[in-house]
Amino acid sequence: MASMEQQFIVSARKYRPERFDTVVGQPAITRTLKNAIAGNHLAHAYLFCGPRGVGKTTCARILAKTINCTNLTADTEACSSCDSCNHFMNNRSFNIHEMDAASNNHVEDIKNLIDQVRIPPQTGRYSVYIIDEVHMLSQTAFNAFLKTLEEPPAHAIFILATTEKHKILPTILSRCQVFDFHRIGIHDIMAQLQSIANREGIAAESTALNIIAHKADGSMRDALSIYDQVVSFSGSSITYQQVIDHLNVLDYDYYFLLTDHFLAGDYKKALLVFDRILEEGFDGHGFVAGLATHFRDLLVSKDPETTELLEVGGEVADRYRKTAAKTSVEFLYEGLKILNSCDLAFKQSKDPRLLVELTLLSLSSITQATELVTVKQEPKPLQAKPETPKVTPTPKTPSPVVTQTKAVEPTVPMTRISEFMKKRQPVPADDSSQPVSNQPVTTGTDQVDLTEELIKTIWLEFAATLEVDQPRLYNTLITQLPRLTPERKVHLTLNNTLQEKAIRSIQPELNAYLRNRTGHQDIDITTDVPDQPAQKKLYTQQEKYNHLQQKNPDLDLFRQSLDLDLE
Description:
By secondary structure, the chain is of the alpha/beta class. The protein has 27 helices and 10 strands. The strands form 3 sheets. The protein has a 5-stranded parallel sheet, with helices on one face. Strands 8-9-10 form a 3-stranded mixed sheet, covered by helices on one side. Strands 6-7 form a two-stranded parallel ribbon.
């Protein structure tokens, strides 16, 4: 008998909250329920939804206990001493009925529940029916439950709990007061674990409890299960090293060491650290996710306003602040982008290790790339060479030369476009009568003389801005050049309606660009697509071959030389 009394009870059951004020991490919900009880505004149906282990069923049981308590405290809590409370704590209450919908999900189970609802409670005011995992009910069971859920007897209160709210029928949701439980914060879990450790006489390091809280992923029940597991492993003292060894969690030291190697540009040592991590049995994908979290924590540690987002405490938090002071925001931002790309590509990679190693190489080169850009930008003041045209022998040349310099500065840098223009529309360098090279282009309201060559030049400048983001539209713009009509309209002839639709999608921006560069606010773009002759559909192999041969007569010689058949 003594051995039975000393039987171990898991912490999730032993320290399960029995009052609203002991529920962890859900203050808004517990406050609303207490106010409803105090004001006698109880609904006939509640729906508690949220992730696992956040207190849905616990709050349902506390609500059922409190509304039947005959001696409520001043702060609307159950007294835990009246007959109703004693029966509840000893699992002998006839007013509270719990049903697991995962195993009782048929229409017959709901019909039995409906018959039971009609019976009034023998003691107390309410009969409370708690249905857990209610989303598991079948379609017919939901339909059979609708009428009773909408108009139950005055003594009946339903509390439905689910982890998958999206699977609940809208007709069920509309009949319930819905409470969304959120994941419990890291600090709340740590505080609860510390309180339990103090009661049990166990010395626990805050960094060790922080690892357990992170591993629980917002679930108090998971955190308590991990805590029990760690206590069984470590005994009466829980240290950070014991927790990371037992839970197979990567030490913070590795991440800080890698950060130092990245800042120094030492990719060799970074690769060796990663090899050591793999030898210790850690997963590459988990390593990438952990390193991304490390970079995020460094980023929020750089500013006092965001330091509260750091979900670690004690010495680790101080270490993050010191390391963050050595890094730049640009370095951390670029590192997060690289790690996020690696995370997304990891599952599709044929060689995950090589992918992670390439990521480490990219992280090690961020600082060097930033320094290279800085070095390139430093001699910028030396680029004052455009002033040389001022030294000219004739007094008439400065005006067009200055105008030409202004025309070159606002244009978009072009490489392939400039070569394309030289091949497509060659202009003699010494011909002053040509308007393309010396044609003034405005960036304000001053108007310039419109010429077709000028329109084409501005057209290609605009196309250059689309080369990276919209390559198809870019190709359309540089191959279908416009012409200037006598009515001063910019007319464009396109090959098909798809090109026309694409041009129309950017026509407002293109119009604004042309008007701004020329100063002519009445300029507009018109398009047309020539009628295409109806083509005969090709079905047989012979028809397709004849069609290709008409386009290229040498095709038949090629076929004969290789002795090929159509089949």
